[in-house]
Recover the amino acids of this structure.
């Protein structure tokens, strides 16, 4: 499965590496692919996740308590391409990446077969000035976010800088706000659709069931479910429930 | 343009910038584009100066501390920010930012607070202007600082407990940022220190720069000298220090000393001496120096002084430190408490424990006798009586 402009109805799932247990990362990724997820975002935890609501904050805290670090995550991901074939993006905050070394980080992503990164607090200006070259050298796509308040000129610039897909936020909010998709968000999705961007677009934040998924994907190429899935991981035998969860949405 | 001030892109050397998620971009961009034209507008300046004079009680005195000077064998002046309304320098910034928020047409104000001083200063200006006020405060700090919580509530503010992470200042800041993400249109976030994404470090430093602006004038009147030999201040995030240093940065012969909180000792594992213990990184929207693990997780600092208990420092301080323009030192809990008691006995002034850290460094300095030293007495010690009582058993 490719994330391209022709694809539609793509479902991506976010989960936090190291949650609910340190070694759960690849088991969850594998189960998600089997269940029919089209691509994945694996979160690397951070102590101060300002863009996240309580559910993902909690999963990050637990993952850190379980001992998750970028070193350990890359160690676990050595088997990624043996067990998982769909595209995988790493998602997290910029400070652990800086501390790991941006070049090391990109080298490792390439080595283990990660397709790209989503780093919400790494803005376009800083990415372009400081890091774009090293991402490009390693063939790592950095994904940028677009919100209902992002200006058209800025969206065009993001479209120019992007090499994989654009992450459209359904509303200006932290993760996990289960907002009904309102008429105004549909107008915003339509506005984006009509811009006819070069890159595929997927919608995230607030997508949590079949209804919100269908509405979102009627305008763009796909949608991302995060908080609703992370909640499922708190259950016993969560691996057995993944298939039903995916089928309930897609 | 001074090499120690922010450049057009929001950087001080390699530090600063605006490392914020896209959700905050419109708010921060609005500020970046408008803050200078607003605060340099004559009508803004006039109201700012009027409130600082008639409401805050400025200018604050530059007090020649005679007995303290005799003790250390030099000439020590205290810049008396402790005499401001609400008891500290924090009000200089909140007055500036509330006027800015009004000009931007914002209806709702949010703030973070650690010990409650900035929360009180924010609730105060919101009462003054009749604006809605929400203050985020760590759950643990709410328990430790009941009188300040009461002050904020009396002034009509809503105090919301930050229950994530370590439940202190760092987490209160995270919650305030989350609030701002979720309320992007009508809300202004009054950050209390020279931290956060550009333009906050510069904006807050400008509002606090009244401290050094007055100091220059007062020193000239009192001594005939254009500049002191040494200026000193304590640093948590660093707002009183930024204000104390501001108008002396380009006078390279003025020595700048910043005192961080060493807690139980720099190497004790319970410290907030960021420049000694930290590495470069990004926290709360700017690139600076912060206390963190090898994996880039932010470490919870410790100091007896809640106002210095922050794991980072403002980007301008990181630059002053790295460029060598400033000397960054530290004082332990014990050194600070003793310095606070000494000032009380010698001068009849009970300092905030934050300010006591700056005073504590005097013990480690050697003087020839003819120096002029200005120390920013950033706040009064009323809020700390409990701590002083417990520590000394009064």
């Amino acid at each position: 499965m490719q994330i391209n402009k022709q694809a539609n109805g793509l479902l991506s799932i976010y989960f936090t590496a190291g949650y609910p247990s340190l070694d759960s990362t690849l088991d969850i990724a594998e189960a998600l692919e089997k269940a029919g997820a089209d691509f994945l975002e694996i979160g690397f935890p951070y102590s101060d996740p300002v863009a996240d609501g309580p559910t993902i904050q909690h999963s990050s805290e637990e993952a850190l308590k379980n001992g998750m670090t970028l070193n350990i995550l890359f160690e676990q991901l050595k088997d990624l391409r043996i067990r998982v074939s769909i595209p995988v993006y790493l998602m997290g905050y910029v400070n652990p990446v800086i501390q790991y070394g941006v070049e090391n980080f990109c080298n490792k992503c390439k080595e283990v077969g990660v397709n790209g990164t989503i780093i919400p607090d790494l803005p376009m200006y800083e990415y372009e000035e400081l890091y774009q070259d090293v991402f490009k050298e390693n063939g790592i796509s950095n994904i940028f976010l677009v919100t209902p308040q992002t200006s058209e000129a800025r969206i065009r610039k993001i479209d120019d800088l992007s090499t994989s897909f654009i992450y459209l936020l359904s509303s200006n909010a932290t993760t996990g706000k289960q907002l009904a998709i309102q008429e105004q968000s549909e107008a915003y999705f339509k506005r984006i659709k009509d811009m006819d961007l070069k890159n595929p677009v997927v919608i995230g934040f607030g997508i949590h069931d079949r209804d919100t998924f269908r509405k979102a994907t009627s305008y763009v190429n796909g949608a991302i479910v995060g908080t609703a899935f992370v909640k499922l991981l708190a259950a016993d035998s969560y691996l057995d429930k993944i298939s039903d969860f995916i089928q309930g949405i897609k | 343009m001074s090499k120690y001030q922010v450049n057009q892109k929001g950087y001080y050397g390699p530090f600063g910038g605006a490392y914020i998620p896209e959700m905050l971009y419109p708010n921060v961009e609005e500020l970046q584009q408008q803050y200078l034209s607003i605060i340099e507008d004559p009508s803004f300046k006039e109201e700012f100066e009027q409130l600082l004079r008639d409401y805050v009680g400025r200018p604050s005195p530059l007090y020649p501390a005679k007995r303290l000077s005799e003790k250390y064998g030099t000439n020590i002046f205290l810049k008396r920010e402790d005499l401001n309304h609400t008891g500290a320098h924090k009000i200089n910034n909140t007055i500036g930012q509330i006027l800015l928020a009004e000009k931007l047409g914002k209806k709702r104000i949010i703030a973070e607070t650690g010990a409650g001083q900035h929360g009180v200063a924010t609730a105060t200006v919101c009462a003054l202007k009749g604006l809605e006020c929400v203050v985020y405060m760590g759950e643990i700090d709410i328990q430790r600082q009941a009188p300040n919580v009461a002050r904020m509530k009396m002034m009509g503010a809503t105090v919301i407990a930050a229950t994530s992470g370590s439940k202190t200042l760092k987490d209160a800041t995270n919650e305030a940022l989350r609030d701002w993400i979720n309320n992007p249109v009508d809300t202004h976030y009054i950050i209390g220190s020279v931290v956060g994404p550009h333009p906050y470090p510069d904006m807050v430093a400008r509002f606090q720069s009244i401290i050094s602006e007055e100091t220059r004038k007062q020193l000239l009147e009192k001594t005939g000298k254009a500049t002191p030999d040494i200026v000193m201040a304590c640093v948590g995030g660093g707002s009183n220090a930024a204000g104390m240093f501001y108008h002396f940065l380009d006078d390279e012969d003025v020595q700048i000393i910043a005192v961080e909180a060493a807690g139980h000792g720099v190497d004790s594992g319970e410290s907030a001496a960021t420049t000694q213990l930290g590495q470069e990184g990004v926290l709360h929207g700017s690139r600076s120096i912060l206390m963190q693990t090898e994996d880039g997780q932010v470490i919870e600092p410790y100091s007896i002084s809640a106002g210095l208990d922050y794991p980072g420092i403002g980007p301008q301080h990181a630059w002053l430190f790295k460029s060598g323009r400033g000397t960054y030192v530290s004082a332990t809990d014990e050194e600070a408490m003793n310095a606070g008691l000494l000032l009380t006995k010698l001068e009849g002034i009970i300092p905030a424990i934050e300010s006591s850290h700056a005073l504590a460094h005097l013990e480690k300095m050697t003087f020839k006798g003819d120096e002029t030293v200005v120390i920013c007495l950033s706040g009064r010690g009323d809020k700390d009586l409990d701590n002083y009582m417990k520590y000394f058993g009064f």
The interface with chain B takes residues 46-51, 53-54, 57, 61, 64, 69-71, 93-100, 120-123, 125-126, 144-147, 149-150, 154, 169, 172-174, 177 of chain A (CB under 8 Å). The two ends of chain A are 15 Å apart (CA to CA).
